[in-house]
Design brief:
binds pyridoxal-5'-phosphate, alpha/beta, Aspartate Aminotransferase, domain 2, globular, Aspartate Aminotransferase, domain 1, DNA binding, Arc Repressor Mutant, subunit A, 16 helices, pyridoxal phosphate, transaminase activity, four-stranded antiparallel sheet, GntR family transcriptional regulator/MocR family aminotransferase
Amino acid sequence: MRSYDLTERLLTELQRPDGPHALAPLNRRLYHVLRETILAGHLEAGTRLPSTRALACELALSRNTVMSAISQLVAEGYLSAQQGSGTYVSDTLPDQRPLTPPASAAKRAPAADNPRDLSDRGALLTRHSGSQDYEVQPFAPGALDFADFPIQLWQKLQTKYWRSLDRNLLDYGQEGGYMPLREAIARYLTLSRSVRVTPAQVLITTGTQQAIDLAARLLTDHGDEAWIENPSYWGARRALEAAGLRLRPIAVDAEGIAPREAEWHTRPRLIYVTPSHQYPLGHVMSLQRRRALLEFAAQRRCWIFEDDYDSEFRYSGRPFASLQGLDAHAQVLYSGTFSKAMYPGIRLGYLVVPPDLLAAFNTGLYDLYRPGQLMLQAALTDFITEGHLQTMVRRLRVTYQARRDALARSLVQALGARVRISGQDSGLHLCLVFTDDAVDDEAVAAACAAHRLFVRPLSRYYLGAPHQRGLVIGYAYVPIERITPWARRLGEVVRAAVDAANGAAAA
Ligand SMILES: Cc1ncc(COP(=O)(O)O)c(C=O)c1O
């Protein structure tokens, strides 16, 4: 096969929407297509492949994508790389079985070839880690400070229930969780978040991640379309991808999710949004946008998943009511979490479900995940009803606000017009958006990491090409006595990296 024919074939196969690997990441798709081309005998042993640079250019892929596919094939023995002279199809192929699987087996091709291979879905879900890079480090978004968490009180409340010898609390949590906790949450949501809710509608989950997973599994089918904000929370993306949804990234502006004209004509089955504090940019969805989204969902008969993950921490302006509270058609599922106000390892959150979905969601929650932890739920109920949660959140709000102020001040001083700060009115992180969007935020984040200052590049939160570049910076973890010197250092490192990038571009 000539290289022209090879590129033609690769392009055609890569673009097939119904191919067995259509949902896999590009490097995996290229790997499969090349491997199948070799095994089908279209490329003879000894054939020299075009260079990775040429292939990347002809296939309009990044060189990294091509190199990743090629090196996998070299590692598996399909290709051999000869230093300085190129990459060749091997004389002895590792697997000579005919590649075209029977139609029914086509989808399972990779697992059948190598049972230890990840499935395409597995590869897609684990292609890079969303959080593990640096979860609990200075300035890492999501890292919290537990220094003042009232451990003894928390322990006392839990011990009380273990001492009570109430063996019912050892069971699975039937019917959506511990009822007194559901009542306490319903009260809080009605008063503070204008959610329209009865206790029966509140299901206790192991956090937002499970709530998204449950909603996606019960309300959508494999291959359905879901809208997701772009940029967006990687955890939500993973859960929706795991449910086999086709994600349509929808841009975000200062008023929240901002579908383009053509997108208003599509038919998503589910829309995932963070209206109170867009993650990660931090915008609050405007009333006008909320109304438009609700009207759209009513017309298209699709579901909205509202992730209200950090609205306990609002520092200025009035808190916005929930989207669910505005909804006249019972089409919004509202989710909250105790990961921020308590601690992430508690793995407790809640999902407010429209009344007509309740029976199905109760069954789904019970049968799919086998919930439990009733002792913990009982202790949390007391923590809430005795007023400890409110006191703690009030105190943390003051603490975190002081840290945010110190961070923002230092960053503005160091960086001036190089950046715009977004989303600092609430939550536990802010977003530093570079005015010059040619600056490589991965490189800037790497420069910060070299100084043990861990921030995340904004571009990593985008699905596809990033619209903006910058840094997502958490401030909850850094103690107040450290935040000013560390934030100054962060500002200096970012300034040097941005100026170096600008200098290099100008040269
Ligand atoms: C947008 C968003 N939603 C939800 C969560 C919390 O998820 P969970 O309740 O599963 O801990 C986070 C955590 O950082 C988040 O950033």
